[in-house]
Write a structure and sequence with these properties.
This protein is α+β, with helices and mostly antiparallel strands. It has 3 helices and 8 strands. Helix 2 packs across helix 3. Bound molecules: zinc ion.
């Protein structure tokens, strides 16, 4: 893995990534053997896209009873190419930049939340205790909704 310790295509210092990303990369190398930067970029793209879709599906289902069906909300993608080597994955106005599972889920959740705010003029989800809008965050490696009133963790963004 020495060759990809600093991959300019990923825009990330892979020394700093968490266990989740290290395990994923280990599996990538185990399954693919040697692979070039282009192939790695496309695997990063697919990972972001698939996790973003999972998040959007789960949250749209959860939010629908409160804010209505979110038919028009979709994960928008730009396939990896010369202009954007790792492609682009967007949810609402949020561009997914994380590599770790929890980070991607939290960014996608922020995109869903922003979409609901703009399109439905609604704050979703709200803290069941304080009634304030929750914020997506990564805590102890998990993507969770937190409430800044008392700074308490309310629920995982996606039930495992
Ligand atoms: Zn609260």
């Amino acid at each position: 893995m020495a060759g990809i310790t600093r991959d300019p295509h990923l825009g990330a210092d892979l020394d700093d990534v968490g266990d989740d990303v290290r395990e994923w990369l280990a599996a990538v190398f185990r399954d693919n053997g040697e692979l070039d930067a282009r192939r790695l970029d496309s695997l990063v793209f697919e990972r972001r896209r698939d996790l973003a879709r999972l998040t959007v599906r789960a949250l749209a289902r959860e939010a629908a009873p409160e804010v209505g069906a979110l038919w028009a909300l979709e994960v928008r993608t730009v396939e990896p190419g010369d202009d954007e080597p790792a492609g682009a994955v967007r949810v609402g106005v949020e561009t997914i930049l994380s590599l770790d599972r929890a980070g991607v889920i939290a960014e996608a959740a922020e995109g869903v939340q922003g979409y609901i705010a703009r399109e439905r003029q609604a704050i979703w989800p709200a803290c069941p205790v304080h009634g304030r809008g929750l914020h997506p965050a990564v805590r102890s490696g998990a993507a969770v909704w937190i409430c800044r009133d008392g700074d308490h963790t309310v629920a995982p963004i996606i039930g495992e």
